[in-house]
Amino acid sequence: MASTLLSARDLRFLIYEWLDAEALTRRPLYADHSRETLDGALELAERVATDHFAPHNKTNDANEPRFDGERVHVIPEVKKALEVYAETGLAVAGMPESVGGAQMPHLITSACGAYFQAANLGTSAYTSLTAGNARLLLAHGSPEQVRTWVPPMIEGRFTGTMCLSEPQAGSSLADITTRAEDAGDGTYRLFGNKMWISGGDHELTENIVHLVLAKIPGGPPGVKGISLFIVPKYLVDADGSVGERNDVVPAGLNHKMGYRGTVNALLNFGEGRHTPGGSPGAVGYLVGEPHQGLAQMFHMMDGARIGVGAGAMAVGYTGYLKSLAYARERLQGRPLGGKDPERPQVPIIEHTDVRRMLLAQKSYVEGALALVLYCARLVDELASTEDEQERRRARLLLDVLTPVAKSWPSQWCLEANSLAIQIHGGYGYTREYDVEQHYRDNRLNAIHEGTHGIQALDLLGRKAVQEGGARLTLLVETAGATVERARALGGAEAEYADLLDASLRRMSEVAALAWAGGDPAVALANATPYLEAVGHVVVAWMWLEQLVTAHGKEDADGETFYTGKRAAASYFFRHELPRTGPQFDLVASCDRTVLDVPADAL
Amino acid sequence: MASTLLSARDLRFLIYEWLDAEALTRRPLYADHSRETLDGALELAERVATDHFAPHNKTNDANEPRFDGERVHVIPEVKKALEVYAETGLAVAGMPESVGGAQMPHLITSACGAYFQAANLGTSAYTSLTAGNARLLLAHGSPEQVRTWVPPMIEGRFTGTMCLSEPQAGSSLADITTRAEDAGDGTYRLFGNKMWISGGDHELTENIVHLVLAKIPGGPPGVKGISLFIVPKYLVDADGSVGERNDVVPAGLNHKMGYRGTVNALLNFGEGRHTPGGSPGAVGYLVGEPHQGLAQMFHMMDGARIGVGAGAMAVGYTGYLKSLAYARERLQGRPLGGKDPERPQVPIIEHTDVRRMLLAQKSYVEGALALVLYCARLVDELASTEDEQERRRARLLLDVLTPVAKSWPSQWCLEANSLAIQIHGGYGYTREYDVEQHYRDNRLNAIHEGTHGIQALDLLGRKAVQEGGARLTLLVETAGATVERARALGGAEAEYADLLDASLRRMSEVAALAWAGGDPAVALANATPYLEAVGHVVVAWMWLEQLVTAHGKEDADGETFYTGKRAAASYFFRHELPRTGPQFDLVASCDRTVLDVPADAL
């Protein structure tokens, strides 16, 4: 039976036929790799995700982490899965040689990660948060900090978290009140409460490395006074062994609708439960310079945002494959015009509306996978090109695509999960099947790491206008090159190229119209419809790229891969892209309905 | 604190200012009623729903019904709530005098029912299923059947169910295999399994009256051979007292994502656990003539479908009110252009995107409430008018609006619940707050009592074309009259009247274009986008009706009701109605993408 996590055939198509991963292996940074090592990693990820992550996905959901007032208990399958994951070396694979990594392209490690997210979003969150944490320290930590904390994280002995939110400051980081007092010995002592900390406490690993945003008293107000600290659960001795307990303790767990496999904790820092070194406060180590915390954290955050999009995609993708398998097996009803009840029932995939729901899902999840991998490829470009112009292009494109790569899969792959439930009918609504959990798990993704609305402000308020709109212009140019290639091919490719071309123009023009009055309140009043419309345009571009890549390729006997790609592309261009028309019109009109409604009239 | 179930002010506006319930009380059927009795019922419903249904909504969810292999256990709060409900007399209120009812307009009993649905969808399902069951027997049962079963149901001593689906036949009723053998004594013996039976077993009441679809051997194949039977859990003695156990037993419960407060069972009929009267088979009593079961059941089903829409609306409505209350209280961030971190944080309702999410919810839930009440008013018209033409109009309009009233709230009030979560941020995703349960509960509504896709086929395949399209034509005419009234008012009313007018024309024209080729497969390939577009047009009409009703009315000091109505109407016309453009274009183009995609290319 084919895997119901991701389609390996689709990954091969995107990674090799489209994004030319083999070209990356000819660059110095990735020179140790070849098609063989990349394929090996992908196959290993699929196997370990299938055998060690997927089996306890439901168990995790039904037996969420439990806090006994002192310790957090997690089902044993999670620890076992993380141990096996560590043994695979996949966490180390993408890291630089300097810390023992294999310098594998991000394109491949992202695809590997997606297998784990599809198999078990809850358990895989520990690995992705830890990787993000390690990368942040590689970028901003001192050599000593890197030596102390990074190897145990990428080897799976420690996990990592990011501690931003506080009960009174979720999206509003200017208002955090956790304070870090200079201890005079090169360390700080932290006091405060952090909320929504994924992986915040557990006994899955020897230690937990918290990266914590806090304010050093006397610093500037608001976000300008935020610094970043390493605050381990256990202090580490000079020889690297785990030592005294630090004063960071769980105060409670959040009980969520989904995503239950990941511990989500309220953490207290410096409440006095422990007194490391005999003094009050949680011991913290400043990363880089004071007051640079927000910028440093955003180094991790941008990657985390694309990671959220990747998770949303992966959960959408597996839901699609499961509903596809169900639709092929489940017998129910008869075709239109052949309702004779004496004839046997047909598999529900024979019903047009079921095919519509499958094709919609396919267009969302494969479109989202393409987008996530395209972003990963840009990360590789940024890391590996020698050409300064290319680096700048990659950086700007990644900047403008990040809010889209975060928000679009969170919205549309959730919709895919809803359609997967719908295909299963009443069964899909029960906990006997997997799809209801996917739907619950996926609903978080529009909230964490910057809400949907915050992504919209980021796109229309910053990314679309900074540096004279350079990012949006570059996006239009880059997608415009795809339009030209598709036009040259004629046929459906040319037809859809025209549609994309018109949408790209409208996307630019509408951003200008929104800002024409110069009033941010008016410009941003409809930022969310703008974000959603841009998302559809970007994914339409991803579909045109796939069509161009598939051009002229015929399916081998018994295969239908390219036929399916063409059908899903057609679905996206005919059923989906037109949604953007009214959205762009609304933004262009600077509609003031939501801006002007008095709060007390709601 | 204002109720967070439904807005009593909105109900008064819709029921009295718009739908003129007082005019109904001047008709003979409703002559016992007055504004006072109607208000009394509404206030009673709000109070009992608040005090006895809402408090255990979460408890029900966290402690779902449990089957010990023999008996089904439900938390005691449910039984208590149903007892209090029975004492209120609300179940009897809408019934005819002939069975001791108070003949209250359906408009009012629907609104009362919505309070209970908003408070606790799970517990209220027992009451609405029982009412539907009683109404079906009133319409199709023999006088003796009515005497035996209806009074105990409306008095709350018995509950009722509808048993349609079987494990192999969910949406495909032609394939049911439960058989009913003539026992030769005027009764039948039933054998078979029924699936997804809400309220299928419990000990909340003395007895359960199952209405069961089954086939009498030798009858015609498919749906033409379906008959309807009363199959009680306990036989009833001649004096009406509950007697011997019948052979209908639970085989298991379904464990669902939401809607957990309602027992949902797999029932076995005639498996031999009991042998009533010493013979095998569950004793059943034929309702009406053999082979009329489907038509009879649809008498209940049409009402049940609008009831599903009402439930979806109610859950959406309470989610809206709760997120509104949260948005007024939760402090977070600062307005655009006033980001000084030294200033205090503002309530999140000050953020434009939060107002957008509130206004969207308001436009969905108040639009849905208007639609549900409009349908209830048509039921009253049908029941109370003396004019044959008016009866026909009411019946045809109700016919064409039923798939919309079922599907539109199921889709958009679920979306409202998603926005309610989003406004709560991370908190909304936790089980500490109510909104995540609303979202889970509401997701069922697009599935049960005819899936979303089945509603689409019903609309475009039947309701839009039967009798030369008379129903759609009548809908256009009726909404057209609203357009004319609104145009005469000028201003925003006239502006939106033009938009609705164009949409109504397009709605008709597109149905004709879809069917132009005469091939049902092509016509119905895009039935779902058609249903969704028509839903938006119908709700736009509901908003124009509300605008016209509000015209010239000024808010009293300290009130903002009409201002809010106007803002929500503007939102719907500017942000929502335009979505229908691309949907109608797609249907009009007879797009074949989903029709032509080969099943094996998915």
Can you describe this structure?
By secondary structure, chain A is of the alpha+beta class. Chain A has a domain at 300-596: Butyryl-CoA Dehydrogenase, subunit A, domain 3. Chain A contains 21 helices and twelve strands. Chain A has helices at residues 8-18, 21-24, 35-53, 57-62, 76-88, 90-93, 106-119, 121-140, 143-154, 293-329, 352-384, 388-424, 435-442, 452-463, 466-489, 491-515, 520-523, 527-550, 561-576, 580-588, 593-596; strands at 66-67, 72-73, 158-163, 179-182, 188-198, 207-215, 226-232, 234-236, 242-245, 248-253, 264-269, 282-286. In chain A, strands 3, 4, 5, 6, 7, 10, 11 and 12 form an eight-stranded mixed sheet that branches. In chain A, helix 14 packs across helix 18 and helix 18 (527-550) packs antiparallel against helix 19 (561-576). The mean pLDDT of chain A is 96. At the A-B interface, helix 10, helix 11, helix 12, helix 13 and helix 14 of A face helix 10, helix 11, helix 12, helix 13 and helix 14 of B.
Give the structure's gist in a few sentences.
Chains A, B: Belongs to the acyl-CoA dehydrogenase family. The first copy, chain A, is of the alpha+beta class and about 600 residues long.
Give a topology summary.
The structure is a homodimer of 602-residue chains.
Chain A: H1 8-18, H2 21-24, H3 35-53, H4 57-62, E1 66-67, E2 72-73, H5 76-88, H6 90-93, H7 106-119, H8 121-140, H9 143-154, E3 158-163, E4 179-182, E5 188-198, E6 207-215, E7 226-232, E8 234-236, E9 242-245, E10 248-253, E11 264-269, E12 282-286, H10 293-329, H11 352-384, H12 388-424, H13 435-442, H14 452-463, H15 466-489, H16 491-515, H17 520-523, H18 527-550, H19 561-576, H20 580-588, H21 593-596
Helix pairs in contact in A: 3-5, 3-7, 7-8, 7-10, 7-11, 8-9, 8-10, 10-11, 10-12, 10-13, 11-12, 11-18, 11-19, 12-13, 12-14, 12-15, 12-18, 14-18, 15-16, 15-18, 16-18, 16-20, 18-19, 18-20
